[in-house]
Amino acid sequence: MGYVSASAMTLLSTIFAVSCMGKARNLKEFAEALRSFASERTSMLLATMVTALEGLTLLAFAISLAGVRWAAVLGFLLAGSLLLAFTLVMRRIQGAHCHCFGKHGTRYSARHVVRNVLLASAAMAGLVEHHGAAGPEPEGIIVAMAFGLVIGLFVVMMDDLVEVLRPAGSR
């Protein structure tokens, strides 16, 4: 694992951990949000599948920390695929709300598209670098992981930050 893959893995793990826990805690609400394009039964199945796939992504990253290289590959591929799928689906639904982190959600906008594309790019960068990484310094890995954690927390809080920084008249 190199610096880029360590940072990307921590970033994506942070995002998927918060997302998976939020969706699992509010699964019915998440399923209800999917009702705009799926039946009641199908929306609950989709909500459960998405939450499970996010959990599987986390599990793959956790297993990779034990030195199982294919698990990191699986984690990066799942993360990138999920993020791109979310972007494609949400862009097709008029008036969709982003339930990315389990909250009631904000209206899906261009910033969510940019966020998901950048996160998918981080997954692909981590995947590419993971294959070619030669034993980096442990101190550098710690710094890279701390960077990924800080950026991950910023991404999780993005909608809240936008709301706080928005001028009072436009709320």
UniProtKB/TrEMBL annotation:
Subcellular location as annotated: Membrane
UniProt keywords, alphabetically: Membrane, Transmembrane, Transmembrane helix
The protein, known as: MauE/DoxX family redox-associated membrane protein
Transmembrane segments: 6-24, 45-64, 70-89, 110-128, 140-162
Domain of life: Bacteria
InterPro entries referenced in this protein's UniProt entry, alphabetically: Methylamine_util_MauE
Domain Methylamine utilisation protein MauE: 3-127
A Pfam family this chain is assigned to: MauE
